[in-house]
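Re: that chain you flagged

S.,

Sorry for the slow reply, it's been a week of failed gels. I finally had a moment to sit down with the sequence you sent. For the record, here it is as I used it:
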Amino acid sequence: MMSDKQPPESNSSLITAEERRLQDSREHVAYWKRWGPYLSERAWGTVREDYSADGSAWEYFPHDHARSRAYRWNEDGIAGICDRHQQICFALALWNGRDPILKERVFGLGGTEGNHGEDVKEYYFYLDSTPTHSYMKYLYKYPQAAFPYEKLIEENRPQDKDKTEYELLDTGVFDEDRYFDVFVEYAKADVEDILIRITVVNRGSEAAELHLLPTIWFRNRWSWGYGVPRPELRQMVKQGDDESDFALIELEHESLGRRLLYCEGAPELLFTENETNNFKLFGVANEQPFVKDAFHEYVIHGSREAVNSEQRGTKAAAHYDLTVNPGETISVRLRFASAQETPDSADAFGAGFDQV
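Prediction finished late last night. Pasting the structure tokens below so you have them in one place:
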């Protein structure tokens, strides 16, 4: 027999803020899930980017190509976020002053290099995320010694399948706690207003250098012959009476509109194009004077002509050159917002930032 009792009315006062965000998302009131941790740790060596005649995805697009070669179907990065269609991407790049390359993505072994097949050789942790990604927290452990790329390949390749893998920890780069903990947090003040805090901790016993490059870029959708308009990033000059302590990158995208990335302090802004360095990889002329691996060339090799002095492109970074003392914690804050939800410049990193 069916009961004639009516279900109790929901008490909106008992709904948490995250439950309300989920409800708004389900009912298409607010698009809380547009931005999230949808950026892969690696896109190199995948079937998605494989155009080889024999299906050899690992050899066709190896890790060593990734810093110089534009992806078509997806992007990758460390602690990255993007919109759900992966048109605008944000992630972290790092250099410890010793690595042979800029650390823009995780390293691993291809299927023919590891004794157990594909295997990422890094230490990173997804620490927290709400269902709508209104808050996210990530940890990456970055050695202060040169990252042992070749050592990991050389030690793993000859191993039999019944042997244990040779891991990053086995190389000794974390001995005596000589590494950085790099925490990355995202918090949404609103649907299109994302606060970013990067916190670096030196776990070692000596001061250590760290180049920190929060990087924003467009996935390359314009180079494949379908008439997709090229978006643009550019430095935005603040108004004459604006003495706020931040640098500003402006974005223009055909479907996502105008957006701003606030970068705390006075970092050096770097610009290039998310275009393949054909000359380096294939020995033919580049279609653009500025290419994907420009920040690697600039930061590590001091090549000033690698970046666009006109401060525009399809890939940009805020370059923070830090010296972190033993046990010291240094934080860098950024804010990514649509032009419609742009905070007042004087309050971009005010008291409200930490409250969010």
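What I noticed first: Residues 92 and 214 are 5 Å apart (CA to CA).

Talk soon,
D.
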